[in-house]
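Entry under discussion copied across for reference:
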Amino acid sequence: MVYYSAMPIYEYKCRSCGHQFEKIVKINESPDCESCNSADLEKLFNAPGIRTTKSKRRSESGERQDRGKVHKDLKVAESDFLKKEMSHDHSH
């Protein structure tokens, strides 16, 4: 048997500071702004997402892959930069 814990994800905008964020909330829970701690929030009209254990793992896996791609891109850019610097140094 597979057990899924699901909690809705809502998007909010703070009326005090304008900060916009997503928050996993329990029923009857009212979050505060992550930026200024104000309780004066506007719940934005979007379909709430549901986060299950499976979707959380899938999301985390995607984030790891994205970080790996960024790391690889940085290494390639660093290597290209060093090659250009070395060829520039040898030409003088």
User: Anything to note?
Assistant: The chain has two domains: 7-51, 52-92. The chain is about 40% helix and 20% strand. Residues 7-51 form a domain with the Rubrerythrin, domain 2 fold (CATH 2.20.28.10). The beta strands are 7-14, 20-24, 41-43, 49-51.
